[in-house]
Amino acid sequence: MRRRIPIIITFIVGTALIMAMFIPHTPFSSLDENLSVYFDIIAVFAFILGGGNLLRVHLEKIQKKKRDWQFSIVTVVGFLFMLIIGFFKVGGPPGLSGDFLAEGSWFRFMFEAVFNPLQATMFSLLAFFVASAAYRAFRAKTKEATILLIAAFIILVGRTPIGHYFTSWLPKQLDFLHVPTLASWIMGWPNTAGQRAIMIGIALGVIATSLRIILGIERPYLGAEK
Amino acid sequence: MRHKRCGWYFNSRILIFPVSILSLIFILGYCHFPEAQEETFDILLRSEETPAPPGPPAVHDTPYDSGESITIQWELSSDDGAGKNHVTGYDILRSETRDGEYQLISSVTKGVKEYVDTSTKDKVDYYYRVRARASEFFADSSPSEAVQSKQQWYNPERSNLLAIAVILSFFIILYISRAKRGKKLFIRRIAGLEAVDEAVGRATEMGKPILYVPGIQDLDDVQTVAGITILGSLAKTIAKYDTKLDVPVSRSMVLAAARETVKQSYLSAGRPDAYSDDIVHYVTDEQFGYVAFLDGTMVRNKPAACFYLGSFFAESLILAETGNSIGAIQVAGTAQPAQLPFFVAACDYTLIGEELFAASAYLSKEPRALGSLKGADAGKVIALMFIGLGVTLETLRVLTGSPAIAKASDFIIRLVSLRF
Amino acid sequence: MSVVEKLGNVDRRIIFLLIALAVIIPLVFNISFMEHPSPIVQTIFDKIESLPNGSKILLPFDYGPSTAPELEPMATAVTRHCCKKNHKMYIMALWPTGQAQALRVIEDVIEEEFPEKVYGTDYVHLGYKAGGYGLINTILADLKKMYTTDAEGTHIDEIGMMSDVQNLRDFAFICNFSAGFPGLKEWVQFAGDPGDIPVAGGTTAVSAPLLYPYYPRQMLGLMGGLKGAAEYEAALVHGYPEYEKVYQRAIAIMGPQAIAHLVIIIFIIIGNITFFIEKKRAKKSD
């Protein structure tokens, strides 16, 4: 029974949502919207579960002085500090309903002075990793790899202002060989064709997976198969 | 003197009358003339500056919707884009009685000749006027016919979508039932999934943990669901090999689902003793905070195998390159086409798009799940047929310029164009 | 280890160091290049330019600090352009971090460069709302159902420019800046397509290829990464020459990006040359 009820709920809700695509009448019309709101509400409550888990795991690590337990102190202190200054709007407008990002609030200061640079730093790692991955992966080992290499080359040059100067001397009749034009062509045609093919496959995969879930063949929300 | 005085007296008497009359006129004029003058001026100005009114609005209940919506269309004022060309916009006015008071409900800019009023109540009569505005001057159209909004039970604009859904579902259910009856279904080899055992074996030999990342999206993303389903199969193998598994997650709901999945897998593998709640743990919802944690974990714990199966964004390359730097065997899979090149470049095996969704069926070898894959293939055949037909017709249209082919091509485009 | 082998297996830390130098040196010496807007970016500029003054434009900020270096320059340029054209700007965010990003642009562009703009009349900041594409779906039919107040808590009915906005269909144009999900793709799928509203926007260079399939039928134009932002800035400078002397951030940062691309190209060439030499040697030894 513990398994059957969730499967029945999944089937009913899944089928109703599919029907809602074709029936604009109430109650179907607002089903998608209302369920999205319910999802958000559940997600908010689930956050307590996540936050609780984070605290439990790291406090245990500190208590038992497990490997790298010092990092856990940073995590716990950081988590509680941000939670408190955000919740109580420290330094911001009085009252709990004000804007937590208001000018002068501690939360805003932490957001701009700590969170912003940390995020930008993590994202900027991409520039370094793109270089090392390109150096390792773009080798003309096969015919396919050579085509990939040439395409990468054109895009890399074409997506910079240098690409414009590189072939700007070409006569107008040969404009199609201009590097930025070639880069745009690769992005607009072969890339789009490939993307569309992958997207069609993905869409069909999503439909098949969704049907498996609705029909109860696949039920990860219950914890693996029967 | 007297004469002079009389004379003055006489003269002043003569003057008193006209001066008094003039003063009276002046006083009266002062009080009333400016207003009269302004009124006259205003009438003159209005007649010159007042724009031509728009045509009477055509109104109808917005079709195929959930009610509470009326569409209003009107002919532009002849001073909009032509004539004096000074119309700045239109006000939409509404009343529940034809000759009642009309309330302003919205304004649109010049050149616009349609407005959808979504603030109506169903089954109530409404009348509309459209007012052309030119600075402070305006002109109203005559009122529209009465109109009511109502809900519809079927949206025929989505008939093609319904047909596609029915056909696809038919094939998927057909193949599922065939598979249930024991018919053998062929499924091609997916290298990335064949490598799962190899990766687990390697981690066991090396005595190092396995890192599993189910993406950075929540449970409402099918990719996350697929990632958790694969985790279920993988956890069973890991439990058998008695290898350490680490599943840090970035969403609380994923935490609950993944934990339950791993628990069930350890139970079905007969190793409930090896299960611990700490295998699946929450890190943060924040994308790069999560990535920082994963990178740190990889560098410190040096897992022998890393699995990235779910929905990924910019972090894909950061994770894959860090995994590569520690020499881990890496299997990735996502339905985010933009991230696939990064995974392909830096991982040992990559499940491309739909392979991620096929993975759970592939690993479980469950006949009904395999049947659904076959059904999806039927959808691919149908899509290919339409693509072939469309390309052929469009090519012929360009080559021949035939109106009949153009008509057929347009029909195909209309047939497959989905309206949401 | 021979020189060829060494060049074929350059330590990643050396690559990282050279990339860092390729970025830092042009930044220090202010090396930049002229940009030329491509059609896919020019269409966005032309759309904003061609809309009648005072048109309603929705600007959703769906990114966080991590991607701000790529997306903020384009958000700045588009906002600047909207201000120049006296369009009414409706700013919102589907990402929690987007609200703060929007605030930065409001303060740096609208409040500082166009102090005559009045909040509530010329622009409004609706702030962040959870719900992702579900929210887009909802506000397509009824905006005020989800947005009862602006970002500062002022009731929506007290904001003048919100009086004639019922839903997304009331906007003449949606220009989104997004770094992922929910983002431009969702704005196209859940607002542009069903509502028949012109949608365009900018995204990170990484996500740009994913959006090309929607151009030009479903998506008016696309600014892909910093390059797209620089092209928009170039279009703005071309259309409004008074900006020639104003610092254009994306154009300025494109210098380091161009040099970094060159370094990557050089490494790819080195990698391939060593690969072929080693292949030849292996053949000989066989």
Instruction: State the shape of chain B.
Output: elongated
Oligomer: heterotrimer
Strand content of chain A: under 5%
Strand content of chain B: 15-25%
Report, as a whole number of angstroms, the end-to-end distance of chain B.
Answer: 106 Å
Describe the largest sheet of chain A: none
Low-confidence stretches of chain A: none
Tell me the strand order in the biggest sheet of chain B: 10-9-8-11-12-13
What value does the average pLDDT of chain B take? 86
Secondary-structure-derived class of chain A = mainly alpha
Helix content of chain A: 55-70%
- The CATH class name of one domain in chain B reads Alpha Beta
Give the N-to-C terminal Cα separation of chain A: 13 Å
Output the number of helix runs of chain A.
8
Describe what you observe in this structure.
- The complex is a heterotrimer of chains A (226), B (420) and C (286).
- Chain A has helices at residues 4-20, 31-63, 69-87, 106-137, 143-158, 161-166, 179-188, 190-214.
- Chain A has 226 residues and is an all-alpha fold.
- In chain A, helix 2 crosses helix 3 and helix 5 crosses helix 7.
- Chain A is extended, with a radius of gyration of 27 Å.
- Chain B contains 11 helices and 13 strands.
- Chain B has a 6-stranded parallel sheet with strand order 10-9-8-11-12-13, sandwiched between helices. Chain B has a 4-stranded antiparallel sheet with strand order 4-3-6-7, with no helix packed on it. In chain B, strands 1-2-5 form a 3-stranded antiparallel sheet, with no helix packed on it.
- Chain C is α/β, with parallel strands linked by helices.
- Chain C has 2 domains: 3-30 and 262-285, no CATH class; 39-246, Rossmann fold, CATH 3.40.50.
- Chain C has helices spanning 3-8, 12-28, 39-50, 68-84, 98-113, 132-141, 143-146, 184-195, 208-211, 225-239, 249-285, and strands at 56-62, 88-93, 123-128, 173-178, 199-203, 222-224.
- Chain C has a 6-stranded parallel sheet, sandwiched between helices.
- The mean pLDDT of chain C is 92.
- The interface between B and C is medium-sized, with 24 and 28 residues.
